[in-house]
Amino acid sequence: MKGSDVIIGEISKSFGDFRVLNKVSLEIKKGEFFSLLGPSGCGKTTLLRIIAGFESPDEGTVTFEGTDVLPLPPNRRQANTVFQNYALFPHLSVFENVAFPLRLKKTAKQDIEAKVKEYLKLVQLEGHAHKKPNQLSGGQKQRVAIARALINEPRVLLLDEPLSALDAKLRQHMLIELDQIHDKIGITFIYVTHDQQEALSVSDRIAVMNQGDVLQVGTPHDIYESPATDFVARFIGETNLFDAKVVSTVKLDKPETEYMAELDIPDLGRVKVTTVDEVRPGQEVSFTIRPEKVLISKEKPATKREDINLFQGEVDEPIYSGFQTKFYVKTAEKVLIRVIKQHAKYSDEGPDIVWKDRVYLSWSANDGYIVEIKSGAVEGGAL
């Protein structure tokens, strides 16, 4: 495995009175595609700049393969950065832009020729070597920047929102190419983005950040299916999020420790959810159910399973998008629940459920999730 293990230990950084990073600690594995994900101003770019050597932290450590890199200037860290604005030299050809780091190192001319050709082939720009940057598309410019960053064979590639200047379709195409480049060269990628779909698509693991803190680190599946906080649940995809109180819990007869909890959600009613957390009656929690996990039908589901949650409501707004329809359903108690119905077959091509229809909503206790256990009085109750 190429690349370096990158360990960030309790990094803090302030600009004046504004605390940008608050004792951030992360362990990034060698060869991993690791994303720092969060909204603007959450501290992710500042953290990347500290790793690169463009900023110094107020406190904390950054090590590559166990070596402290904070005393080292950027050019000695074996880490190169790809910026969102490309940072190409406009007066140089594509070839010379990519060759620039090697010329600085006074690499032999024949070696430069061979390596530049190799990396232009890697980013699929072999036929554009003699063009100037103003003759390239946005995606081509970004590929030049990636080739230039990789030609020195760094052990860590840092990518600061590299696709944000591209349009949506080109961004998706470049994302696939970037993932393929990572698979080919196998070094450690640290990728900064505010776009959840980008991070979910390419990352081995993701760190979700907000207001200078890391809220959760996990695989895309972990982050999406098992969000650790209300913020993560809301930020990653769409969800239905409710405040609730635990009414009762029962330990399930399973090899692993799991509980069936009954929650009371104001204005909605009682909801069953399975959880590995030992929640107790009286505790206040947050409950989430993803829109695609909710089944919607005009007929009452024919099931006697005790773990199924069932509610009635009225379609407040149907939004047809071709491959899916999103429904906003208002329950009798005036709670709005979002539902996404995928259209996988021709028979599903149109919305058979329309505005003002009375519908049934159902989901399994296994599909909901207790996001946060909050403070609250704990009442007596058997576990």
Give a summary of the structure in a few sentences.
With about 375 residues, this protein is α+β, with helices and mostly antiparallel strands. The protein has 8 helices and 20 strands. The protein folds into 3 domains: about 5-235, 3-Layer(aba) Sandwich (Rossmann fold); about 240-290 and about 370-383, OB fold (Dihydrolipoamide Acetyltransferase, E2P), CATH 2.40.50; about 290-365, Nucleic acid-binding proteins (OB fold (Dihydrolipoamide Acetyltransferase, E2P)).
Q: Can you put this structure into words, describing what you see?
A:
It is a single chain. The protein is α+β, with helices and mostly antiparallel strands. It folds into 3 domains: 6-233, Rossmann fold, CATH 3.40.50.300; 238-290 and 368-383, OB fold (Dihydrolipoamide Acetyltransferase, E2P), CATH 2.40.50; 291-363, Nucleic acid-binding proteins (OB fold (Dihydrolipoamide Acetyltransferase, E2P), Beta Barrel). It is 22% helix and 36% strand. It has 8 helices and 20 strands. The protein has helices spanning 44-52, 94-104, 109-122, 138-150, 168-185, 196-202, 220-225, 230-235, and strands at 6-15, 18-28, 33-37, 59-64, 67-68, 79-82, 156-160, 188-193, 205-210, 213-218, 240-251, 259-265, 269-275, 284-289, 295-297, 308-320, 324-331, 336-342, 358-364, 369-374. Strands 6-7-8-3-9-10 form a 6-stranded mixed β-sheet, with helices on both faces. It has a 5-stranded antiparallel β-sheet with strand order 13-12-11-14-20. A hairpin with a 2-residue loop joins strand 4 (59-64) and strand 5 (67-68). Helix 2 (94-104) packs parallel to helix 4 (138-150) and helix 3 (109-122) crosses helix 4 (138-150). The longest helix has 18 residues, at 168-185. It is elongated, with a radius of gyration of 25 Å. The relative contact order is 0.12. Residues 378-383 have low confidence and may be disordered.
